[in-house]
Amino acid sequence: MIAENLVRLLERIDKKCKQVGRNPEEIRLIAVSKYFGTDAILEANKAGVKDFGENRAQELMLKYDKIGDTVVWHFIGTLQKNKVKYAVKAAEYIHSVDSIELLEEINKRASSLNKVQKILLEVKTSYEESKSGLTNEEEIFGIAEQAKHYSNVNLVGLMTIAPLTDDENLIRKSFRELRLLKDKMNKSGINITELSMGMTSDFEIAIEEGSTMLRIGSAIFGERNYSKDWRQV
Ligand SMILES: *Cc1c(COP(=O)(O)O)cnc(C)c1O
């Protein structure tokens, strides 16, 4: 089931890349495995997926303890300061940095593990009340500048979640805003390459708008069962 879903998904990614003249090799597919067990992760890994995304620190730790570094872990959820140590231990990338305090804590924890933590800044491009992420451009530039002074963090890009809507224009606007912000940052001497954007419902638009990291869950693993206890991994 997972292997078949993956074949279908990769076909769609390839097709969209061809349409817009992009090389699919420059896009990293992150399988978002939240609510799915380690059996599903290993099955996807066997089918060729190397990158996995989790949005809760404890769930990530449980899976990391079982699977370890044989796959590349991405932390993509809201991160509390007291959970930073777990995310830093397991994740090669933390996509959801949204404050200077979090940046500082990540640097501290990464330093004690002798690690350079790759991070992305989460930007709120959707103007929805409930979504997390940075909105103030001055603050975004400020955090990016501060990151340059920390030797145990490496800022590689920006992440966003598009609004939950059927209106393709609004979704595109959100992804485009992130791309333009990245360009602006690069012009001002902050060198970043990654755009983490695009999920199951909107990844084709994200590819058109320059995504380099797709975070896709249900198209690979199927619908999530939110009533299932994630500790039974
Ligand atoms: C769950 C989640 C995804 C994946 O969502 P799907 O719709 O299942 O592809 C992507 N990004 C974040 C931040 C998530 O929490």
TrEMBL record:
Q: Name one Pfam family in it.
A: Ala_racemase_N
Gene Ontology MF, one? pyridoxal phosphate binding
What InterPro entries does the record point to? Ala_racemase_N (IPR001608), PLP-binding_barrel (IPR029066), PyrdxlP_homeostasis (IPR011078)
Q: Which cofactor does it need?
A: pyridoxal 5'-phosphate
Q: Does the keyword ATP-binding apply?
A: no
| Residue intervals passing through the bilayer | none
Q: Which residues form the Alanine racemase N-terminal domain?
A: 14-224
What keywords is this UniProt entry annotated with? Pyridoxal phosphate
Q: Which domain of life is it from?
A: Bacteria
**Tagged with keyword S-adenosyl-L-methionine:** no
> Which residues in this protein are found as N6-(pyridoxal phosphate)lysine?
34
UniProt function note = Pyridoxal 5'-phosphate (PLP)-binding protein, which is involved in PLP homeostasis.
Q: Give the family from UniProt.
A: Belongs to the pyridoxal phosphate-binding protein YggS/PROSC family.
Protein name (Swiss-Prot/TrEMBL): Pyridoxal phosphate homeostasis protein
